[in-house]
Structure formats: structure tokens, C-alpha cells
Amino acid sequence: MTDDGRDIETEIETETTAGEAAVESEAEARWAVAIVGAGVIGRIHAEAVRRHPKLRVGAVVDPDAVARRQLAGQIAQAEQGAAEAPPAEFATLPEALAAGGIGLVAVCVPTGLHAAAVTAALAAGVHVLVEKPIDVSLPEARRLTALAEEAARRGVLCSVISQHRFDPASAAVAAAVKSGQMGRITSAVASVAWWRGQEYYDSAQWRGTWALDGGGALMNQGVHTVDLLAWLLGRPVEVFAHAAMLAHEGIEVEDVAVATVRFASGALAVLHATTAAYPGLSVRLQVHGTTGSAVLHDDQLEYFHVARHGAGATGGPYGGAEPDNQASRVVPASEVRGNVKAADTFVVGHLRQYEDVVEAIQTGRPPAVTMRDGLLAVALVRAVYVSSTLGRPVDINALLAGDHDDVAITVASGGEREPGA
């Protein structure tokens, strides 16, 4: 809404679509969100939506009647006394869209099912927030990005979940990079060292498949760290990588991936992702520049230091003139590594992105995370897989242009194990 109470959406000189009409309701009404996918991530989205004063869960969409009924029931119970009706239940998104009244679709199904949901929602003129990665296929991700950009010209928003960009620690590092406090960014080290037991992959047929998971440790578990890496260091231009499946059985994808990445700025990075690091450690991202360094550790700020807060004094040939950790000066105490994180941190992270999406819809600006951002993350992951398969560096621009769309990805497995392994 504008300061004088006018709705920005009504000023768009295009035919009002179903989704826009839902958003243009009375200021006091909450916009109805359709949660597509009633699994773990769908429940996180539902709780984030429920906490936003402008949103409500209007529909739960899932072919599994038990799952959608359970989630809809939980929401109805939590919302007892609310003016609106409890969430409607639908087996498919087209059914929910046909029923009308949906202002935003949250796509929370397995990655291989994203495309159909995003396509249907945008075709209906309904705003979309889709989980990352946007698709398992780079050509399909390109198509969805083009659809989203065409929809944006009609006033329909499409954003990609990258909730860690909104973490206070990540935001503080990004601000320091953008302002030049850290000088020229020279390098980064990103590691996702997690463990997933065999039972994790056995728990659902889609896990560990190219068709629905789109990849393994890097695409599924590491894609948010990939996104942060590109956000902080800029556009990647070349990747050289290895990927392997070493600790699990019955899956098609990698459980270990390592890569070196070169960026347009000249900066270099090391990328590591695994679900074979027992008992499961942490996510860590180090960013280094000529006048500062920062370390993000499990979404908190472990270390932050800039020379005289960006004045450029580096302490001589070996540095160290100002060795103190300045992390507590740039983020709240709860965001400094070692302090206890709230139990609902994951929900709050998603809520921050919903706040951005709502503001973008209200003001007509682009969302902070666009589909093109999501496309770049998928391209970087795909570059790792293609490089590992071909055994040579891969140019990101060529990849985005479709040069390697025909490469069938292979993942090394087995090998000789050390005694006792």
C-alpha cells in the first residue's frame, strides 16, 4: 500500500489476474497462501506464513490425503478464533487455483516437481515463492526463469527461497563486502560437512535420484551455501570439480563433492559438500579480502574483522595489528557463534523472506531473491557435476547458454577402502 492508502497493484496497467485480485483485498484481510507439499518443509512454510500479520494459510495441497489433512488440521487448531475459514484441502494445485482466492503459492514439493507447480501458478497470475533449488534440470530452470521474468512484467512476483541471505550474520558480511570494508574480496572457503545415514535415503523413493532430487550433497544439502557464495563473491565464471558416491548404497547421486571456483572479479573459492561426514558437523563459509575477513558458521557470525573498520590499515607485512574479533559489534549477541540459537531459527529465517516478498508485492519492487539468482545457483551446481563427469574445467557462461545440456552426469563410486573402513 502507498502512504495515502492506494493499492499499488491497482495502478498496474494490465488486466488484473486471479492472483492480483486476491492480493488487492481489504487492507485488514490476510492474503491466502497455498502451501504445495505437506511434508517437513511445507510445515516450516506454514508456520512462517501463520506468523506473518498479512498472510494466512488458505490451502494445503498434497496428493497424500493423510498428510494434507494433518497439516490443515494443525493450522486450524493453531488459528482457532481467527476470522478466516480453516485451510481448504486439495490434491492438486490446479484444483486449488480453480477454487480462487489464492494470492501466493509456496512450492514445497520435491525439486523435480517444482516446474509444474511454478508454471501453473504463474499461468494463473498468482505470486510464487519456490523452494531452492528451483529445478533439477538446468534447461527447465532457464525456462522457469524466463516465465518468471515475463510474469514480472505483468506484475506477478516469483521469488526463490534463500532464507540464509536474510540471516543477520550473512547480511552483516554482505554489507561489509558491498561497502568495501573488506577491501578487494580475494577468496572464500565453503564447506557443508553433514551426515545422512542410509535410512535417510531409504526413507523416500525420490531421495538420492537425479529425477526428483536433482543431485546429492551439493544440490540438496549444499545449494543454500552455493547461493551465499555467489551472493558474496559475485558471478562465478569457471569451475573444476570432482564428485563421488562413497558412503551410501542404492542412490544415483554424489555424497561428496569438491570444487574450485573462479569468479569474474578474479576471486577464487573452494567448495565442499558431503553427507558422508559422520557424525555430521557444520556449515562454514569463510570470506577473505584485502582489509577484512569473516567466518559464517551454522548461520552465526564466528569471526569478523576489518582493518580499522575499513580504513585500510592492515598492520604491516604480516597483519595482526588489530587481531580482535569484531563480530559482537556488527550483529546481536544471539547471532555470534557459540551463543544459543532460538529453537525456531529455521522458521524465523523463512519468515524474514516472506516479509521481503510481501513488501515487494506491496511496493511493486523486485524481490531480494529473484529466479535469476536461483538459476545461477543451479548452474553452479550443474557445473560441478559436468566438470566431474568430463574431467575438465567448465565455463559457467557456456553452461548457461546450453553448451553442456546433453552431458549425462556420472558419479564415481567405490574404490579401494582403507582397512577397517
Structure explained in plain terms:
By secondary structure, the chain is of the alpha/beta class. The chain folds into two domains: 8-131 and 350-368, NAD(P)-binding Rossmann-like Domain (Rossmann fold, 3-Layer(aba) Sandwich), CATH 3.40.50; 168-298 and 300-339, Dihydrodipicolinate Reductase, domain 2 (2-Layer Sandwich). Helix content is 34%, strand content 21%. The chain has helices at 18-23, 40-51, 65-78, 93-99, 114-123, 138-152, 168-179, 198-202, 217-221, 223-233, 327-330, 345-363, 371-390, 396-400; strands at 31-36, 55-61, 88-90, 102-107, 127-130, 158-160, 185-193, 236-245, 256-263, 268-274, 283-289, 292-297, 300-306, 394-395, 412-413. Strands 7, 8, 9, 10, 11, 12, 13, 14 and 15 form a nine-stranded mixed β-sheet that branches. A six-stranded parallel β-sheet has the order 3-2-1-4-5-6, sandwiched between helices. Helix 7 runs parallel beside helix 10 and helix 10 (223-233) packs across helix 13 (371-390). The radius of gyration is 22 Å and the shape is globular. The model is unreliable at 1-19 and 21-27 (pLDDT under 50).
